[in-house]
Specification:
The protein is α+β, with helices and mostly antiparallel strands. It contains 14 helices and 23 strands. The chain has a 5-stranded parallel beta sheet with strand order 3-2-1-4-5, sandwiched between helices. The chain has a 5-stranded antiparallel beta sheet with strand order 12-15-18-23-20.
Length: about 450
């Protein structure tokens, strides 16, 4: 069975990740049209891309109706919320090939306590932690970690768009974070459902390894790193992501295979054993410690903003690979098409994506500010993917979300790509627009681990 190009593709979502997917898929030979639900004005301006505004991406019946009307040969689910809402399940029941896991398999992201449970069952090395439905027990565990000299990380159990994490500098901060989550849950004791996860704080460099999975097998996208903190130097509050780059200076794309063996494949096997095979993008957030890689979390979809940095590096059509994964035939299709070996070919060089965020982000992002300089940035060769913008009646583009744009620079190496992204981002202006200036810049001195040697990643 060889790779087959889908000619009509529906993408569910409206952010920068979905913009990058639409840009990549619509440009591939054999694709007639990419339909994005609900999409955005900016996404709809890509060649061979059309958006269907006004459709709730969480409305299973509405999304199925669009896929049926558009005769979709492949549906790609972008964000995590439609996955958790069971949109994939409804589409599969209606007979569509879907790249995106079922609601049951997507719990690997939508419930951090479930992720710990699956990792333990699969013998995957993960940050030491516990899930709690009682605030007192959560605080007691945080004290236990602090007493042994370990830092503490507090995570909300459900979906929080990448922002429900507090990396605590002190035990008092951990207690405060647990208290705030308890207040959000309505009470500190809400029966048997865990609402908070408390983990040890690991030190090292983070890495994002995202694999295309068909329920049994996995093939990695290029290695990437994103930066969650709002401000340069990893300061400020956590966000959904302020930038990403690919490849990693200290961890080549070739290093992905042993990491897949240590992390992704055991998880795929355990989910399949439970009757919930995972077909979609399985995203491992890893910490590269002095003792080897350790799992921080799994997500059930492409990363944002990692996707914006990864897809420009691919030297192969993505649509047929996603379709093969959706059908459960990834390995045979890759082998028959001359792409064996478990690695997708990439273009030379590097990509850096810088996120521009609205004034007030992440707490209270402001909408309606006019954005200028988009054409100037594009004229410099940058890719500009829209995450949260709208176009007013006069044709002006305005902010309409927290993370507004991803500006992607490409170059012969990471330094050149970072310079290209910075130069292009300098040309874009809006009142109060925020961004970091160190994405992909000079690598910070310190830990440069060699994975799979110092300590076992599968321990």
């Amino acid at each position: 069975m060889s790779l087959v190009m889908p000619t009509r593709i529906v993408i569910v979502g409206s952010g920068g990740r979905e913009h990058a997917l639409a840009w990549k898929l619509a440009a591939e030979p054999g694709v007639n049209e990419v339909i994005v639900v609900p999409g955005s004005d900016a996404i709809g301006r890509e060649p061979r891309v059309r958006c269907v505004p006004g459709v709730d991406p969480l409305d299973r019946a509405a999304v199925v109706a669009v896929a049926r009307r558009e005769a979709a040969e492949l549906v790609v689910i972008g964000p995590e919320a439609p996955l958790a809402a069971g949109v994939t399940d409804a589409l599969i029941e209606a007979g569509f090939a879907v790249f995106g896991p079922s609601g049951a398999a997507a719990r690997i992201e939508s419930s951090k306590s479930f992720c710990h449970e699956i990792a333990t069952a699969a013998d995957v090395r993960m940050a030491r932690g516990g899930a709690f439905h009682d605030a007192g027990e959560a605080v007691a565990f945080a004290k236990e970690l602090a007493a042994t000299g370990l830092g503490v990380v507090v995570k909300a159990d459900g979906l929080m768009a990448g922002k429900g994490v507090t990396v605590c500098e002190s035990l008092a901060e951990a207690e405060r974070a647990i208290g705030e989550l308890a207040a959000d849950a309505g009470t500190g004791e809400i029966g048997d459902r865990a609402w908070v996860v408390v983990e040890e704080r690991l030190t090292g460099r983070e890495a994002s390894l995202i694999a295309i999975c068909d329920g049994r097998d996995a093939v990695p996208l290029p290695m990437a790193r994103d930066h969650k903190r709002l401000l340069d130097g990893e300061h400020g509050p956590n966000t959904g992501g302020m930038g990403a780059y690919s490849p990693l200076p200290e961890l080549s794309d070739e290093a992905a295979q042993p990491l897949l063996t240590a992390f992704h494949r055991p998880i795929l096997a355990e989910l399949a054993r439970r009757g919930t095979p995972f077909r979609g993008a399985l995203y491992a957030g890893l910490m590269l410690t002095e003792d080897g890689p350790v799992l921080l979390e799994f997500n059930a979809r492409f990363g944002d903003p990692e996707t914006q940095a990864q897809l420009p590096r691919l030297a192969v059509a993505l649509g047929p690979i996603l379709l093969a994964a959706a059908r459960g035939d990834l390995g045979p299709a890759l082998a028959a098409s001359g792409l064996p070996g478990g690695r997708l070919p990439t273009l030379p060089g590097a990509s850096v994506a810088i996120v521009l965020a609205a004034a007030g982000y992440p707490d209270a992002p402001r909408s309606g500010d006019r954005i200028e300089g988009l054409e100037d940035a594009a004229a410099r060769g940058a890719l500009v993917f829209h995450s949260g913008t709208t176009r007013d009646a006069g044709g002006s583009v305005r902010t309409a979300g927290g993370r507004v744009l991803s500006v992607v620079g490409r170059g012969r190496d990471l330094a050149a790509a970072a310079e290209a992204a910075e130069t292009a981002a300098d040309l874009i202006h809006a009142p109060g627009l925020q961004r970091r200036h160190d994405i992909g810049a000079a690598e910070a001195p310190g830990l440069v681990p060699t994975p799979m040697t110092a300590g076992s990643a599968a321990r």
